[in-house]
Amino acid sequence: MPxxxxxxxxxxxxxxxxxxxxxxxxxxxxxxRGYAVRGTLRNPDDPKNAHLRELExxxxxxxxxxGDLMDYESxxxxxxxxxxxxxxxxxxxxxxxxxxxxxxxxxxNVIVAAAEAKVRRVVFTSSIGAVTMDPNRxxxxxxxxxxxxxxxxxxxxxxxxxxxxxxxxQAAWEEAKERGVDIVVVNPxxxxxxxLQSTINASIIHILKYLTGSAKTYANSVQAYVHVxxxxxxxxxxxxxxxxxxxxxxxxxxxxxxxxxxxxSKFFPEYPFPxxxxxxxxxxxxxxxxxxxxxxxxxxxxxxxxxxxxxxxxSLQEKGHLPVPPPPEDSxxxxx
Length: 336
Prior knowledge:
Blueprint (H helix, E strand, L loop, with lengths): L11 E5 L4 H12 L3 E6 L8 H4 L4 H4 E5 L5 H8 L4 E4 L8 H22 L3 E5 L25 H6 L3 H20 L3 E6 L1 E3 L9 H10 L5 E2 L3 E6 H13 L5 E5 L2 E4 H11 L8 E2 L15 H5 L7 H14 L18
Parallel strand pairs: 1-2, 1-4, 2-3, 4-5, 5-6, 6-10, 7-9, 8-12
Antiparallel strand pairs: 9-11
Helix pairs in contact: 1-9, 4-5, 5-7, 10-12
Protein name: Cinnamoyl-CoA reductase 1-like
GO molecular function: cinnamoyl-CoA reductase activity; oxidoreductase activity, acting on the CH-OH group of donors, NAD or NADP as acceptor
Organism: Rhodamnia argentea
């Protein structure tokens, strides 16, 4: 299809932290839809960012810019002339000093630069961490866009990642309101799926530990999951839909760790999965209820979690992060 007939033709989107797991998929899908993309990276020449230049359409419509969240001028330069910004760059750490201040200052810098560049919309990648951390939420409450994490609870439990995500999102809303910037927020849960980048990110380690034998047990806890492509596409649909507003919870299903291990062991019986829960005293944790209706209303069709888990492992094998052991005799290979 000629580029000038695609939905993004003639428009430019700046993606911050373009080499990351989710951001790389944003760049890929934006290029496929005909957008020109400007990616900010701390070091555009780092070999770990080489995968971006190999994406289809990259040679014609992708430029990589040296940008640091703490350096306003570098962000301003990358954002000037763009129609939209996908702000996804964020520190991932449990160190409060490294997490909170850069996340808040970086977010404010991006929004001020977006205001100066008069971009049409900023789509901000927040997190489920800004939504669910609330000890007072009853078991029957459906988690949706109206829920916010309790900052005091995050602090008292030293969950600096969730604290940082919540205060960064609050800062984004406040700064955008002050500067007259149209901002819409995506709150993804734990993101899985095929890697485009060569390095392993934090959410993938969550699965990898069950395949390598390093986890001897699984926790008595639940986690919500979503496919990386769905998260990237959610940002694009939100940018393209003028009526999109507020927050969008991006989740496909909530599984107990035991369910995750069971699904994976059926697909890949050759790996040493844990068979025991680390907590066999307390009752099994129950999945919480959530609504992803807002994104479905925009036309997003979520990838089933089983397919998501299968593709994650296949990708780890293809990238050489996971040995491919011979299948056991008499095992039946289950297809995704």
